[in-house]
Structures are given as C-alpha cells and as structure tokens.
Amino acid sequence: MATNKDFSILITGTGFSGICVGIQLKKAGIHNFTIVEKANDVGGTWRDNTYPGAACDVKSNLYSYSFEPNPNWTRAYSPQAEILAYIKHCVKKYDLGKHILFDWEVKAAKYDEKKAMWEVTNQRNETIKANVAIVGNGPLHIPSLPDIEGIEDFKGAVFHSAQWKHDFDFNDKNVCVIGTGASAIQFVPEIQPKVKKLFLMQRTAPWVLPKPDGEFTPTESTLFEKIPLIQKLNRDFIYYLNEAQVVGMMYNDNILKLGEVIGKRHINKYIKDPELRRKLTPTFKLGCKRVLLSNNYYQALAQPNLEVITDGIQKFTKDSVVTNDGKSRKIDAVILGTGFHVADSFQYYNVQGKNGVQLKDVLHDAPEAYYGTSVHQFPNLFIMLGPNTGLGHNSMIYMIESQTNYILDAVQKMMQQNIKSIDVKKEVQTKFNEEIQKKLVGTIWLSGCKSWYLSADGKNHTVWPGFTLEFRNRTKNINLNDYNLEKISVKKEEAELV
Q: Are 382 and 135 spatial neighbours (Cβ–Cβ below 8 Å)?
C-alpha cells in the first residue's frame, strides 16, 4: 500500500469518471486527493442534461459501476433522474463529499517542472497544487453551438438541450429544433404534443432502432437485491451481447445488415408518407455514426404538426427561420440539439505542460494520447475518456473503470518508488497511435459518413478500435518502461526509512 501522505492528487469533475477515481483511491488507502467541480452539485453530464425524455441508451445494469450494483433501477434503460441519484448515492456511500470543492471551475493548469507539481487555478484565481492531476471532465460538457447568420438577432428563446429552459411554455408555440442526434430523438417526442408547430432541421437521417425498454417487475428487483449473482449474470449477458457488435463494426459489416433491416422496418411501421420516409431513411451504413434507440421518435415525426426539413438553414431573422430554399417560417423558439465538442474538446483547455507546450495545441487537429490517458510532455497528467477511448457499442463505464485501474497503478508505483514525475515517451505514444489508426482502416466508422467521431484531419481519434476486454487487459497495469521517469533524490539514510 502506498504510504506517502504528502503525495497529493487533484481530480476535475464529479461525473462517473471523477467519482470512480475518487472511490478507488480511497479503497487503496489514498486519501490526500481533492475533486474540484465547476457546478454546485455532483453528476456531470447527468446533472446538466435535464431535458424532457433524457435517458441512457445503455442498459441500467451495465451503465453503472461493477463494484456498486444497483438493484433499484426501475427500468431497463434508466432515466436521467435515476442515474443522477445513483451518482449521488455513490458519493454518499464512499464519503467523497469531504474531498469535493464545488463552484470551482478550472481556468488554467500549469506544470512546474522544477517542483514536478501541477498548479491549477480557478475563476477566482485560487490555486491548488498537486503531484498528479486527473482530468475527469469527460467530452460531453461543452455544448456545440452552430454559427448561423442572424441567430444572435432572433428575439425568441434560444437554448441548447444541455441548458434546457424549464420555464419555457411550449403550448401553442412554433418551435425550431436543430439536429437529430441522441438528445433530439428523446426530447422531440416529449414536446411535439405541446407545440403548435415543430420544424425539425435534419442534416443527416440517423439510424434509429427500437429500444428494448421496459419496467423491472417487483420480482426482478427483489431477485437483484437478494441474489446479487442474478444481477451480475444479467450485466455480463448485456456486456457480451453488446461486445459482439465489434465483429460487425471492425471485421464484417455484413453482420450489421440485420440491424439496417430492423431500422427500415421501424421507419416503415410508423412513417406512411413516401417523401417523409425517404427523408428519414439513412444513406450510410449502420454503425458509421452513433446508432440511436427510440420507441416514440418516428411516431412524433408522423404527426401533422411536425415538419422535417432537410434544405438547411440560410439564416435567422428576429422572428423567423429561413431555409436555403428561400422559405421563411415564423418561430417562437430555437432548440439546439447540436451535441457537444468531442473530437475537438481539447481546444477549450488551458493546460500548459513542459517547455510551455499547450495541450490544446498538441491535441488540436489530431488528438492523440497513450491509451487515451497520457500525453507526451504533460507529466503526471492523466486524462479520463481521452482520444480513442469512445465506444459505439458498449458502456463507457467499463472504459472508465479500466482507465481508473491504470491511473491507480501509476499513482501507487509513483508513491512506492519515490517517482517524482512520469512522462510517456514520444516514440511509445506515436507507435501506439499508429497501431490504433491502422486498426481503424476498413472499419464501419470510416465507411464514408460525416460524424463527430472524426477530427479535423479526417481520422477517427474518438473510438477504441476493438473489444473493450482488450482495452481492460492492456490497461490493467502501467508499464513504467513506457515513460520517462524522474525520481526524488533522497539521502541514503532517508531512503532506508522509506
């Protein structure tokens, strides 16, 4: 067990990533850590995204920590409120509250090479120094806002799905929704019955499959609680069923054609108008972009008060949206279902490593890291859910736990071996990413569609190309030979006491 009580750790964010790291540090007997949070409550993306219909698209028993099963899920796919409650439960159970500083938004982080310490500064110019910094913000916290002519002149309500205006009255309103991604397919069916008219701006039709959702029965919940093995077996079944999709995504996309058949049947079942059916039928292979799940999306789109528009937006006026075909439509509100900065999220980070190098410059066009965790020239900095750790088929919680294992092993070895700093070798990072990009060639993710998986260089720096089990095995322990090490210089008599 690591025993250096002066060794300090700073974690940013209280979503699944930051909370997981905090829990595992405590389990390992490491208590000198602080978690900073920009908001006034825990939860990360599940705190911020409170739009109507917000829910997970990974089944509940898998979208949770393996070490903290929850027998009290009400549905196969949990709604936002239950996931947030689960995170709060974990914080309370593992007594993380005393480690969290709220209203503490990171504005800058700078590595002090002489001291081998990170200096992290917030919005009030308060500073925390730590031996190790762990970025647990995740990629889904910076809304992507479209740059459309005249939108700043529009006099009605404008808000992103992650900044939902719960006081806005949708009744008898004309509403313009931009985007048909994961958020939009959840909130559109919720607001469609309330509005006078809904104009849905679609750039690309997504694949939307039926969602095998449903309530857990009291019997199922009791069995999960009384016989935890049953819930574990259910979790394992879901995991391996999801994991099998990698075969189609990476090696033989013909396997995914069954999904395309199901998707087209789903459209045909609810969309009877031939022109609308044409608009809603994807023109790319299933899996190239994120596959969506919904049991009420197409039903909403078939209603007479909803119009799907594919012409693109030319501009906004003070009270209208004008499409590229010249048509003007009066509207009262604009909802941005435009997602988040993912592949380019690092451009918003003010993180300075060795020799004054900025993280946003290093990761701007082609974000690369070692196991999505370490970046050359940024010693003692670990990133959660960094480049090429994303998934198109399984639970991100699995990847979070894997990275946590890796980081915890690194921290323990640093403490036990008096290591002052570790910096992944450039050649190791380069070789790893060459391997990643080679594996991605010919996969479904590079089959021709435009998606948020792709970075400015046209490559996929988002998705892990392979089985998550492989990622878990490769990140079980850190190999210090992959890193440049700087050890603490100690006197002989001091070293004997350690």
A: yes
Q: What residue ranges do the domains of the chain occupy?
A: 9-141+341-497, 151-206+244-336
**Cα(204)–Cα(181) distance, integer angstroms:** 9
Tokens 């190098």 sit on residue: 357
Helix (H) or strand (E) holding 101: strand 100-101
Q: Say which residues have a Cβ less than 8 Å from residue 479's Cβ, sequence separation at least 6.
A: none
Who contacts 333 (Cβ-Cβ below 8 Å, separation ≥6)? Answer: 156, 157, 158, 159, 168, 170, 173, 174, 175, 176
In this prediction the pTM is 0.94
Is 9-141+341-497's fold the same as 151-206+244-336's? yes
Q: Find the helix packing angle between 218-226 and 228-243, rounded to 10°.
A: 100
Contact present, 306 and 296 (Cβ < 8 Å): no
Q: Domain 9-141+341-497 classified CATH 3.50.50.60?
A: yes
What is the Rg, in whole angstroms, of the alpha carbon atoms belonging to the chain? Answer: 24
Report CA-CA distances (Å) from 279 to 182, 202, 275: 18, 9, 6
The pLDDT tens digits for 281-294 are: 999 999 999 999 99
Model confidence pLDDT, tens digit, residues 360-402: 999 887 899 999 999 999 999 999 999 999 998 899 999 999 9
330 forms beta bridges with: 320
Comparing CA positions, the residue from 223, 221, 196 lying closest to residue 332 is 196
* Cα–chain center distance at 169: 30
pLDDT tens digits, 15-33: 999 999 999 999 999 999 9
Can you tell me which residue has the tokens 């701006």? Answer: 201
Q: How far, in Å, CA of 74 to CA of 55, rounded?
A: 12
Angle at 441 between CA 437 and CA 445, to 5 degrees: 95
Calpha distance 203→311 (Å, rounded): 8
State in words which class domain 151-206+244-336 has: alpha beta
**Residues 20, 450: Cα–Cα separation, whole Å:** 33
One-letter amino acid of 497: L
CA distance 64 to 396: 9
> Which of the pair, 165 or 489, is modelled with greater confidence?
165
Are 46 and 91 in contact, with CB atoms under 8 Å apart? no
